[in-house]
């Protein structure tokens, strides 16, 4: 626990047998529960997770990265999580930063904390392919212009959420594919969530998961579509289902009040 808040780490896994143990070994002891959701892997990910005493949920078929996250967050909230940290089990992001990221949320400083690969300039040094770096910068610049959150990147998979934010956002309406990450971030911005970033070193190596150029292009188009839908919702022109907040609708097309006003 941190500040009396229950900390749950979720690990959306697909063929992570070779790297899972290294990730779990570096998770801090303050984590109250570690939940792995396996998206129908073809290796021994599930067996490894059970040997490591993780709470394990297995999809009966491959549903996609976004669908995996939906299950992750549902299980974490069911377990009573106050702060949910998503850590990729491919060891691309450092699990040692869980304490810092969870603290940013547990102490009420932010509703959402992001581990940025761009802050500190370590992305290329960590092995990020040049085309991914260039596309990351292009999409981030575009989204800062369209969404206006002024983040160093919108595409990190290392995140810590407050329970209040996860229960407020209609994440079940989001994509089951990779653009889920971008959609939930756009939702958080429109909702008025307080978002913070921390520099996170990254590792790219053969066992680390990475989508190919074609999937990256599809993701990029999805990001731009999300940004345009965000603008339409913000301006009150058209509100796509992913931007319809059941617990606090915006008035007259304006963004709602912050998740924890007054803090």
List keywords for this structure.
37% helix; 7 strands; 7-stranded mixed β-sheet; alpha/beta; 8 helices; single chain
Your description of this structure?
- It is a single chain.
- This protein is α/β, with parallel strands linked by helices and 263 residues long.
- It has a single domain (7-243), classed as Alpha-Beta Complex (Spore Coat Polysaccharide Biosynthesis Protein SpsA, Chain A), CATH 3.90.550.
- It has helices at 17-25, 45-51, 65-78, 98-106, 130-146, 163-168, 180-191, 213-234; strands at 7-13, 33-38, 55-58, 83-86, 112-116, 159-162, 195-199.
- β1, α1 (17-25) and β2 form a beta-alpha-beta unit.
- α1 runs parallel beside α2 (45-51), α5 packs parallel to α8 (213-234) and α7 runs parallel beside α8.
- The two termini are 20 Å apart.
Task: Give the helices and strands, then pairings.
Layout: E1 7-13, H1 17-25, E2 33-38, H2 45-51, E3 55-58, H3 65-78, E4 83-86, H4 98-106, E5 112-116, H5 130-146, E6 159-162, H6 163-168, H7 180-191, E7 195-199, H8 213-234
Parallel strand pairs: 1-2, 1-4, 2-3, 5-7
Antiparallel strand pairs: 4-6, 5-6
